[in-house]
């Protein structure tokens, strides 16, 4: 499996259904603003819920006229829809369910043994260039403050 893309690399292709079943491509996602791709292991898990709720609480710092947040996991669309409704997420959750983990593999964050992505975060600009990355293990919460800094620096 290739490692995660580095700053300056072209972002790997992405075309995944969101929690409503609508396919989102990276090219469409970054048409007018950058995309903050937040890979997470599992919907409904305590660490993932805490992280994304922290992003949700500060959504105006992330999702603005320059950046749109996209959460990505290998959970099926229906699970992501239920989780988004329960937690009130106001950003797309993308399902890398089938082919299982294909996008997570392309971004170098898929754990083959566990069958799920790790905690990878990638800021992709409107030219499809990776501008910032942060990769953590599945049990390590990512510091959301670093996401704020990356978005501010864009």
What does the model show?
The protein is an alpha/beta fold. Helices cover 30% and strands 25% of the residues. The chain has a single domain, classed as 3-Layer(aba) Sandwich (Glutaredoxin). The strands form 3 sheets. The chain has a 5-stranded mixed sheet. β1 and β2 form a beta hairpin. The longest helix has 12 residues. The radius of gyration is 14 Å and the shape is globular.
Measured between the Cα atoms of the first and last residue, the distance is 29 Å
Give the CATH topology: Glutaredoxin
Q: Numbering strands along the chain, what is their spatial order in the largest sheet?
A: 5-4-3-8-9
The share of residues in extended strands comes to: 25-35%
Taken in chain order, the helices and strands follow as EEHEHHEHEHEEEEH
- Which structural class fits the helix and strand makeup? alpha/beta
Low-confidence stretches: none
For this structure, the quaternary state is single chain
CATH architecture: 3-Layer(aba) Sandwich
CATH top level assignment: Alpha Beta
How many alpha or pi helices?
A: 6
Subunit structure: Monomer.
Catalytic activity: a hydroperoxide + [thioredoxin]-dithiol = an alcohol + [thioredoxin]-disulfide + H2O
Protein name: thioredoxin-dependent peroxiredoxin
Domain Thioredoxin: 5-154
């Amino acid at each position: 499996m290739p490692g995660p893309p580095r700053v300056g690399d072209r972002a790997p292709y992405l075309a995944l259904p969101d929690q409503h079943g609508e396919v989102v491509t990276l090219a469409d996602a970054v048409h007018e603003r950058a995309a903050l791709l937040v890979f997470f292991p599992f919907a409904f898990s305590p660490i993932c819920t805490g992280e994304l709720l922290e992003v949700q609480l500060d959504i105006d710092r992330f999702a603005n006229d320059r950046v749109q947040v996209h959460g990505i996991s290998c959970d099926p669309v229906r699970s992501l829809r239920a989780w988004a409704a329960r937690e009130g997420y106001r950003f797309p959750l993308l399902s890398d369910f089938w082919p299982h983990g294909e996008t997570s593999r392309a971004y170098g964050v898929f754990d083959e043994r566990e069958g799920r992505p790790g905690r990878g975060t990638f800021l992709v600009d409107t030219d499809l260039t990776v501008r910032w990355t942060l990769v953590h293990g599945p049990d390590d919460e990512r510091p959301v403050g670093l996401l704020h800094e990356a978005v501010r620096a864009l």
